[in-house]
Write a structure and sequence with these properties.
Elements (H helix, E strand, L loop, with lengths): L1 E9 L3 E3 L6 H4 L9 H6 L3 E5 H7 L13 E5 L10 E4 L3 H6 L6 E5 L2 H9 L5 E7 L7 E2 L10 E9 L2 E8 L3
Parallel strand pairs: 1-6, 1-7, 3-4, 3-6, 4-5
Antiparallel strand pairs: 2-8, 7-10, 9-10
Length: 172
């Protein structure tokens, strides 16, 4: 199994503004300007938190947004208002350990889901797109415990206004 984070942040490292709004991202560019399609084709599972789901559920044609993956949302809700998204609860580490090992798992969105995986050295690849935006305050991408984590820079790309950095976990 490989676990990937793929997402976009501001130059000062925020996923969203202090109100969890992502208008800054939608006003900067689109996924058509990136390698998103090629990345998505490699994924078999997506996992996101409820705040991320709440942000994307209003997008046009959300039912077809992640058509070829199993899509899990960590939430206390028993049902979700959009087809194709499966609510789950509990510990993300335990959940991932129960998955088939032949999966490519994409962690979408925020630090609530990402931080425990980083704390347990479970993230294999990180692709971060950086938008030319400064928010000054907001929801940070990284909020894991204070401990040194090293990754290897594999590639740097430019897509329109976005810089993309691709990292892989250093195997010890």
């Amino acid at each position: 199994m490989s676990i990937y984070f793929y997402g976009c942040v501001t130059m000062d490292g925020y996923l969203a503004d202090k109100n969890h709004n992502m208008d800054w991202l939608y006003q900067t560019g689109t996924t058509e300007e990136t390698d998103y399609e090629a990345f998505y084709k490699k994924m078999t599972i997506t996992i996101m938190g409820k705040k991320t789901f709440d942000e994307i559920k209003h997008l046009e044609n959300i039912e077809s947004f992640y058509p070829t993956t199993q899509n899990y949302v960590f939430t206390h809700a028993e049902r979700l208002p959009v087809e194709g998204f499966i609510p789950v609860s509990g510990d993300i580490i335990d959940f991932i350990k129960e998955l088939d090992t032949n999966q490519n798992v994409w962690i979408i969105g925020g630090n609530t889901v990402l931080a425990p995986l980083l704390d347990n050295d479970m993230v294999d690849n990180i692709t971060i797109q950086i938008a030319p935006v400064l928010l000054g305050n907001g929801v940070p991408l990284f909020s894991q415990k204070e401990t040194l984590k090293r990754f290897n820079l594999e590639e740097v790309k430019k897509y329109g206004q976005f810089a993309e950095l691709i990292y892989s976990k250093i195997k010890i």
